[in-house]
Amino acid sequence: MYIIKLLIKNVFRHKLRTCLTVLSVAIAILSFGLLRTVIDAWYAGVQASSASRLVTRHAVSMILHLPISYKEKIRQIEGVKLVSYGNWFGGYYIEEKNLFANFAIEPKIFLEQYPEYIIKPEEKAAFIRDKKAFAAGEKLVKRYGWKIGDLVTLKGTIYPGNWEFILRAIYKGRDKNTDESQFFFHFDYLNETLKKTAPARADQVGYYIIEVTNPDFVADISMRIDKIFYNSIAETLTETEKAFQLGFVSMSDAIITALRLVTFIVIVIILAVVANTINMTARERIGEYSVFKTLGFGGWRIAGLIFGESLIITMIGCTVGIILTFPSAKAFAGTVGSYFPTFNVNMDTIFLDIMFSVLVGILAGVIPTYHSIKIPIADGLRRIG
């Protein structure tokens, strides 16, 4: 108990220096936490992927389409439970800055394949029944103030024109990583319109979503699907939903690598700040430590005083930084919600905050401890400040 009181008094002997160091550590931890959360948000779609779902797309590029007739052939493959299809629509709401994920889907089967999208039964029935209906995530609905029955117009980019939809269903995410900012509507509505306005683009889908009966057979089923369409006009590439999502993430590899590098730079900054403070403190107290030695204090006790002070400073800063991370992440999510549909601070990030803070606290005390223990008592007593 006496040692703890002594450590606390030592920590706050120079209040301004300690407060500035704690503030620096807190800002660094806050920056580290937000950067890690950005990286986690980038991978949110990958984490939410199901092991029992496959995605089949054009083998050459994701922007090329497949014939709608492929559905029946895929469904006949042994081990395939459900097959649906869809298209990336690429529309925006009112202004081009109002971008969000919007897809033309096959509603009934799609919703069976994605139980993580929770919709009220009556809204689900209305959505499936009305070809001009759309379903949207709760986060997207709140962003634009929509309500059930509203008429919403999207301006098409890939499919030019003004497309009118009626909000019939609002879904909530079953899991925290479920994207609640998506917009789904009937593929039939898109296809029937294309048959009238652009017949050459009709009866084509961007991808197939395949649910298998047993996740252990996904590799075999993927090979069989691609084998069926080998040497056809539109060859396919079938991969797990996770691999498909990773394909999108890999397009931003340079950005993610840069963010990871910055997180490590932040740790080095924390180490430099704390090490400087502890080194200054230890140098000022060389005389005190020499007195302790004359009283019989061993090297371990001197080390305990220095390391203890270093750890207290870093852990106070860490605690403040973690507390600030949550409201900061919420504010950040409100600003960039359209780019990061899910932006949650994971417990893994908090664990890394604590782990690196402890590591920094220990490393920062190594050199001051070594010098304080090794210096002869006579030389230490001659030191003033």
How would you characterize the overall build of this protein?
With 385 residues, this protein is α+β, with helices and mostly antiparallel strands. The chain has 2 domains: 2-44 and 252-382, no CATH class; 60-234, no CATH class. The chain has 15 helices and 13 strands. Strands 1, 3, 4, 5, 6, 7, 8, 9, 10, 12 and 13 form an 11-stranded mixed β-sheet that branches. Strands 2-11 form a two-stranded antiparallel sheet. A hairpin with a 4-residue loop joins strand 8 (151-156) and strand 9 (161-173). Helix 11 runs parallel beside helix 14 (347-374). The longest helix is centred in the C-terminal third of the chain and has 37 residues, at 299-335.
Task: Name its key features.
alpha+beta; 2 domains; elongated; two-stranded antiparallel sheet
What's this model, at a glance?
With 385 residues, the protein is of the alpha+beta class. Helices cover 56% and strands 17% of the residues.
